[in-house]
């Protein structure tokens, strides 16, 4: 059972999301909040697996709330709720610690798949739009490439493929190793770089210039 909190300043949006999630056996909604400040209190009390977080809210916006949640030990992964056209905010949210984002128009089955996948630590990066957003706003390195020094040559190679949006199975096939080996390397990469999940690793790969849009890295 994946525990979820819904954070949005629009009561109709919260009600709609709850109606969808209450029908799913694998998800339990444990609370709602109408702004970022309430979200911090809610996450501290309930320690959910996933927080569905709106970007634009009063009192405290979703990006700042995400940054603060990511700095706690709650272990909560944040999925940003957005409308198309908030490209800059989406990338800022990923940098703040979000594990991905969802368009508010998402179909219910895709919503459930995203929530359970992110709860497992998967990256919500399959849609082409996400890769395009990350490439658009992280094309120029903003982190010191020396931060990649702790990685072995193989780990760096896997991080390149991960940054390109490949799954463990796809990386395994490309590098002629087993998916289990890839998973082990990904875990070590996250630990060495102090990253929360694969989504953060993708952003990190672009920010250090390990991979640049249009080049193989």
**Beta-strand content bin:** 5-15%
Class from helix and strand fractions: alpha/beta
| Global mean pLDDT | 84
- Which shape, going by the Cα principal axes? globular
Mind telling me the C-alpha Rg?
A: 17 Å
Number of strands: 5
Main sheet makeup: 5 strands, parallel
List the secondary-structure elements in sequence, H or E: EHEHEHEHEHHHHHH
Give the low-pLDDT segments.
none
Biggest β-sheet: strands ordered side by side in the sheet:
2-1-3-4-5
**Terminal residue distance:** 39 Å
Distinct helical segment count: 10
- Helical fraction equals 40-55%
Question: How would you portray this structure in words?
Answer:
The chain is α/β, with parallel strands linked by helices and 217 residues long. It contains ten helices and five strands, in the order E-H-E-H-E-H-E-H-E-H-H-H-H-H-H. Strand 4 (77-82), helix 4 (87-96) and strand 5 form a beta-alpha-beta unit.
Keywords:
single chain; 217 residues; alpha/beta; five-stranded parallel β-sheet; 10 helices; 5 strands; globular
Topology:
Blueprint: E1 2-7, H1 11-22, E2 27-33, H2 36-46, E3 50-54, H3 62-70, E4 77-82, H4 87-96, E5 100-103, H5 108-119, H6 128-137, H7 153-163, H8 168-175, H9 179-193, H10 198-207
Parallel strand pairs: 1-2, 1-3, 3-4, 4-5
Helix pairs in contact: 2-3, 3-4, 7-9, 7-10, 8-9
Describe, in short, the structure shown.
The chain has 217 residues and is of the alpha/beta class.
